[in-house]
Amino acid sequence: MPLFPSASSINTALTAPSSKKTENFWIRAPAESKGGIKLYSTDYYLACTVGGILACGPTHSAVTPLDLVKCRRQVNPTLYSGNFQAWRSIIATEGFGGIWTGLGATMIGYSFQGAGKYGFYELFKKSYADLVGEETAHNYRTSLYLAASASAEVIADVLLCPWEAIKVRTQTTIPPFATNVFDGYKKITATEGVAGLYKGLTPLWARQVPYTMVKFASFERTVEAIYNMLPKEKHEYSMLTQTGVSFLGGYIAGVFCAVVSHPADVMVSKINAEKQPGESVGAAVGRIYSKIGFAGLWNGLPVRIVMIGTLTGLQWLLYDSFKAAVGLPTTGSKK
Q: Source organism's superkingdom (predicted)?
């Protein structure tokens, strides 16, 4: 029997009743992890927060060259014919460092976002489970994952938004709007005030909240489905295998995330690049949509599927690896 099940078997397991119940770590967990961290304590949530920083900051930064091309093609679909042509063109005109435009804002912004996303997700998941009770939490765990991840992302996006505004403005202007993240901060606040850093918050929520809901819920249920189909219990597998399952579940979840959130992602790029002074977000959305139409909302989707699939897989791999390193259980562990 292969170690990892096929996509069709995962789909069957997600939709069919499970004969082997995979317990979630917020149910019947021991008071203390193997590493001595008391579960659901301040140290536990701090560890999850650090894991989120490590999962999101470096991974988003690593795909900056892909993100740069995606953002520029969203704003101007005719600018490049493809990724490799885009990179060649950028290197020729801006130097090798040009393909890393926006790196500083990406690292800072997505580190903050990762901290909020994962830390608060764990907090809300436990809080909501306690609120409704163990049996209800287990029976309706998909709804619990959706509610906890949505709540966490609302907070995480407030932390991300200023840095995302600087990143997108810098990436979508040629030559770049700013020489570095701090230069971008000074330029935006000097002309638009601090409010200028948050003008894309509503579209960011529209992009990121559904994205994160799909990311966490589909990941949790996909991993559960994988373990239900494997011949042995979760704890019988090595940590390498367990984190491998985390990567596979994360990649599958990432593909769903990319499709669900892409139209809002395009609109965020457009608003940060084209919103006029004094124009409301609603007016900007209407004006931009009238120009690009429904088809324009899907510019750059193939690139984003590859980027987000890989990104999400790596994030869950790093997050669960960090949790394992400090003695905490990975997703789906038997207790």
A: Eukaryota
